[in-house]
Every structure is written in structure tokens, then in C-alpha cells.
Specification:
250 residues, alpha/beta, Rossmann fold, 2 domains, 8 helices, 46% helix, binds NADP nicotinamide-adenine-dinucleotide phosphate, 3-oxoacyl-[acyl-carrier-protein] reductase (NADPH) activity, secreted, NADP, oxidoreductase
Length: 250
């Protein structure tokens, strides 16, 4: 198998960290990209302790220069990336009438602008090598969720972004797919529980009761799906949105 270099955004913790670890155990070298380089240390250490190779990359995905510099550094120090996982995310939940322009811009900026910038910065390596894998993190919230008009718009946008990449880049051997997770236990869902004033264990139990497989998701559930979508064998799967939510979506 050819050597593959991946970059995973928002990989200091949560779903991104699990994906970075999984791709490393699949044999890829991994750029662990997050806002703070020191915060990437745990993910990088876990990868290197398991015999893999990883590089911590500090970048704000919503900032063009920051993203371009991180990708150039990755290409120079670890290798040219042909696998990109656009996972970095933030929440700024509020009902529409209380939502500030800043909360709208921040969420659209990290999820959508961030995915655009990181994909644009890496696509040249994929096109040159006539091989690439793009995975974008959507959400079940793409179908609408009270209090998340910004996040729902961003996550629905990720799906259109993904399908368009699949059309544009397919002829270069590049696939693009989206994963739309349901409830996954991370700091993000813990913060949501805290915001609504519910104990996190109770919050998880209530969520699990509504999920057909009767449990909440773990970051590894998403990492397993990402591992398949970026694999050599997934070359005929493109432009898809895979709901990883313990049950079907409408
Ligand atoms: P998380 O635990 O909050 O982790 C998100 C990571 O993204 C953090 O390390 C965060 O850094 C980083 N990040 C935020 N803004 C960034 C920026 N501008 N540039 C670079 N990195 C940035 O979230 P998660 O639950 O793992 O979620 C990962 C992805 O899955 C997100 O896109 C989320 O929307 C999506 N998702 C999650 C769930 C769920 O139930 N957890 C469900 C559906 C979809 P800091 O720590 O410094 O802020």
C-alpha cells in the first residue's frame, strides 16, 4: 500500500482525536490539527506510543493563512497530505431571536469556511497524486434542531459541500463523503448537558432511550466509519452522507 498522510482537524480531543488515532493505527501518518499545539500533545503521544507517526499542528481552521501554513508544514515535515478529515467544530446554541451575528459567524466560520480552507489547501496534493479521500463531519442536526439554526445550517452545508467535491474531484481519484453522527459522548455533548442544566449521565440515559440500538455513540463509532471511508477499498463510495446515529434517519 502507498504511504498515506492524513490531516484531521479538531483532533486534540473528542471525535477528532479518535479518528486521528484510528487512521494512525491503520498505517497513515497523521497531522493532528487543532487551535493549540500543546493541546494536540495527548493525541500525538497516544499515536507515537502505539508505534505510529504524528505531528501536532496549531491552526485556526477559519483563518486562511493559518490553515495554509499548517498544511505546508505538514507536507514538509511528515509528507504531502492526501487524506483530510474536516472535523473541527464549535457550538453557539441559541434560539434565533437571541442569536448574535457573532454566534452565527463563528459556527459557520469554523465548520464551513474551515472545511473549505483545509480542503482547498490539501486538494493539490490529491490531484497531483491522482488519489485522495475527504471526510466532512456533518450531524443529524443538519435536518434541523431547535436552538441550533447556525449549527444546523453549517451541518447541512457540509453535505452540499461534500457532494460538490465528489463531482469536481472524482476524476482525480478523489472521493468525498460526509459522516453525520448522532449523539456521541464528548466534551461537546457534556457542554450541552451543562448548558441545559442536566446531569451528563442522565442526559446520556435520556438520549439512549430514544436511539434504536439503545445506547449513545462513542468517538470510536465515528472513527470506525472514517477509517472505512478513507481506506483504499472505499474508492467507489463518494458523495454519500453516512448517518452514524444508532438508527435510521428520516
Ligand atoms: P469537541 O470535543 O468539542 O472537539 C472539537 C475540537 O475542535 C476541539 O479540540 C476544538 O478545540 C477544535 N476546534 C474548535 N474550533 C477550532 C478551530 N477554529 N480550528 C481548529 N480546531 C478547532 O467536539 P466533538 O464532539 O468531538 O465534535 C467533533 C465534530 O463532530 C464537530 O464537527 C461536531 O460538530 C461533530 N458532531 C459531534 C456530535 C456529538 O454528539 N459529539 C454529533 C454530531 C456531530 P478547542 O478545544 O481548543 O476548542
Amino acid at each position: 500500500m502507498a504511504e498515506r498522510i492524513a490531516v484531521v482537524s479538531g483532533a486534540a480531543r473528542g471525535i477528532g482525536a479518535a479518528i486521528a488515532r484510528r487512521l494512525a493505527s491503520d498505517g497513515m501518518k497523521v497531522g493532528v490539527l487543532d487551535l493549540d499545539e500543546a493541546a494536540c500533545a495527548d493525541t500525538v503521544s497516544a499515536i507515537t506510543a502505539a508505534g505510529g507517526q504524528a505531528l501536532a499542528l496549531a491552526a485556526d481552521v477559519s483563518k486562511e493563512d493559518s490553515v495554509n501554513a499548517a498544511v505546508e508544514r505538514l507536507a514538509t515535515e511528515l509528507g504531502e497530505p492526501t487524506v483530510v478529515v474536516n472535523n473541527a467544530g464549535v457550538l453557539r446554541d441559541n434560539l434565533l431571536f437571541k442569536m448574535s451575528v457573532d454566534d452565527w459567524d463563528t459556527v459557520l466560520g469554523v465548520h464551513l469556511r474551515g472545511a473549505f480552507l483545509l480542503t482547498r489547501a490539501t486538494q493539490k496534493y490529491m490531484v497531483e497524486q491522482k488519489w485522495g479521500r475527504i471526510v466532512n463531519m456533518s450531524s443529524t442536526s443538519a435536518q434541523g434542531n431547535r436552538g441550533q439554526v447556525n449549527y444546523s445550517a453549517a451541518k447541512a452545508g457540509m453535505q452540499g459541500f461534500t457532494k460538490t467535491l465528489a463531482f469536481e474531484l472524482g476524476k482525480y481519484g478523489v472521493t468525498a463523503n460526509a459522516i453525520a453522527p448522532g449523539f456521541i459522548v464528548t466534551d461537546m455533548t457534556a457542554a450541552t448537558a451543562a448548558r441545559v442544566g442536566v446531569d451528563f449521565d442522565d442526559f446520556q440515559k435520556a438520549a439512549a432511550a430514544q436511539i434504536p440500538v439503545q445506547r449513545v455513540g462513542r468517538p470510536e463509532d465515528i472513527a470506525n466509519t472514517a477509517s472505512f471511508l478513507v481506506s483504499e477499498g472505499a474508492g467507489f463510495v463518494s458523495g454519500q452522507v453516512i448517518y452514524v446515529a444508532g438508527g435510521p434517519q428520516d
